[in-house]
């Protein structure tokens, strides 16, 4: 990569970074737990390294293995959060994920809520993908991808999933970036069964970066993702519990706990979309969203009923659902390097 282009990109990135509100402690007003209080190693044990105080954990990917952890309990509804600092430098093909799923229990009807961080070639930003599956809707992926308004490798940022019966909100720090609300048309595609929390780092060479064009290069390993500020503020419910009105029965202690938690969740500040938050969300999406299933007419000729098609937003996307980029004038005559795709988007932001 040309040094000059890299420096320009960094300068632009710095300008964008300074306009993003820093995470204030206590926004969610929920106390983080120690790793062992809520989580247990899932795979790649040797590559899972707890901090001395047990409050944070590093997940490592090297040429031998990735690693991951899983919550000890499953939850139906709640606020789930982790601060994550992503691996630095050349991270093409590396995937870091923080997500909820019940895929191991329900092969055909699983639910899932994802944050997936997709590594990139040097000098480019990580991308974040969110996705929602409900009741086995795997043929109806609802992926969205975004660039980040900050350098996610220089410090930790908080990534949160709020899941209630009334809405799902993905947060980055204090900014809501996506909201999903249940509707009749969405039906069972809205997740409703208990799920476990997962955090993993793995080799996604096959698809993570530019559709698999850039593989993991282990010359740059180990790749280390740091997880801290772990929040599991949810209603604990066995994953296979037949959920019905009965599961929230006041007669049963768990039901009582869940009913109380659910009603407190519904009125929590972070569950309520104020006009200010909605505006912040729109602004984030206008500036940073680089792919939306709602605009991917090649995959979904008819947009899902739950899509909120914003014409001014739609104009910025190709039929593939990917953002159009604005080629820079001074590079017009040069051979286009596909690894610069993101820079064009960043440039465009700077022009706004
Ligand atoms: C989930 O899918 C199963 C199997 O297709 C179906 O029987 C069930 O009614 C669905 N549940 C919801 C909530 O839509």
CATH architecture: Sandwich
Count up the domains: 1
- Please describe the biggest sheet, giving its number of strands, its sense, and whether it closes into a barrel: 9 strands, antiparallel
Number of helices: 6
Structural class: alpha+beta
Amount of beta strand: 25-35%
Mean pLDDT: 86
Strand order in the sheet with the most strands: 1-4-13-6-7-8-9-15-16
What's the CATH first level?
A: Mainly Beta
Bound ligands: 2-acetamido-2-deoxy-beta-D-glucopyranose
Brief rundown of the structure:
By secondary structure, the protein is of the alpha+beta class. It has one domain (3-17, 30-351): Jelly Rolls (Sandwich).
Report what the structure shows.
The chain is 18% helix and 30% strand. The chain has 352 residues and is α+β, with helices and mostly antiparallel strands. The protein has one domain (3-17, 30-351): Jelly Rolls, CATH 2.60.120.200. Helix 1 crosses helix 6. The chain is globular, with a radius of gyration of 20 Å. It starts with a helix and ends with a helix. The relative contact order is 0.18. Bound molecules: 2-acetamido-2-deoxy-beta-D-glucopyranose. 2-acetamido-2-deoxy-beta-D-glucopyranose is lined by residues 109, 135, 187-188. 2-acetamido-2-deoxy-beta-D-glucopyranose (NAG) is lined by residues 109, 135, 187-188.
């Amino acid at each position: 990569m040309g040094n000059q282009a890299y420096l320009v990109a960094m300068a632009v990135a710095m300008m964008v970074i300074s306009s993003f509100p820093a995470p204030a402690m206590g926004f969610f007003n929920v106390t983080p737990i120690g790793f062992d209080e809520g989580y247990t190693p899932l795979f790649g044990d040797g590559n899972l390294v707890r901090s001395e105080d047990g409050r944070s954990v590093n997940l490592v990917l090297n040429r031998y293995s990735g690693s991951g952890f899983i919550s000890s309990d499953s939850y139906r509804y709640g606020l789930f959060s982790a601060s994550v600092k992503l691996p630095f430098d050349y991270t093409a093909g590396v995937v870091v994920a923080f997500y909820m799923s019940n895929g191991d229990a329900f092969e055909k009807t699983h639910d899932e809520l994802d944050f997936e961080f997709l590594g990139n070639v040097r000098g480019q930003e990580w991308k974040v993908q969110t996705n929602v599956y409900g009741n086995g809707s795997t043929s109806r992926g609802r992926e969205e991808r975004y660039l980040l308004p900050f350098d996610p490798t220089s410090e930790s940022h908080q990534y949160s999933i709020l899941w209630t019966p009334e809405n799902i909100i993905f947060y980055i720090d204090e900014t809501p970036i996506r909201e999903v609300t249940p509707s009749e048309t969405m039906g069972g595609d809205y997740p409703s069964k208990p799920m476990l929390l997962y955090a993993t780092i793995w080799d996604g060479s096959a698809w993570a970066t530019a559709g698999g064009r850039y593989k993991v290069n282990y010359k740059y390993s180990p790749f280390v993702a740091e997880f801290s500020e772990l929040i599991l503020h949810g209603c604990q419910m066995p994953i296979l519990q037949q959920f019905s009105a009965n599961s929230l029965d006041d007669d049963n202690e768990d039901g009582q706990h869940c009913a109380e938690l659910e009603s407190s969740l519904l009125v929590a500040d972070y569950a309520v979309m104020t006009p200010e938050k909605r505006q912040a969300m729109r602004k984030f999406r206008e500036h940073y969203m680089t792919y939306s299933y709602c605009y991917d007419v090649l995959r979904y000729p008819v947009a899902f009923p739950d899509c909120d098609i914003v014409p001014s937003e739609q104009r910025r996307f190709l039929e593939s659902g990917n953002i159009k980029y604005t080629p820079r004038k001074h590079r017009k005559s040069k051979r286009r390097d596909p690894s610069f795709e993101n820079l064009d988007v960043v440039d465009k932001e700077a022009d706004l």
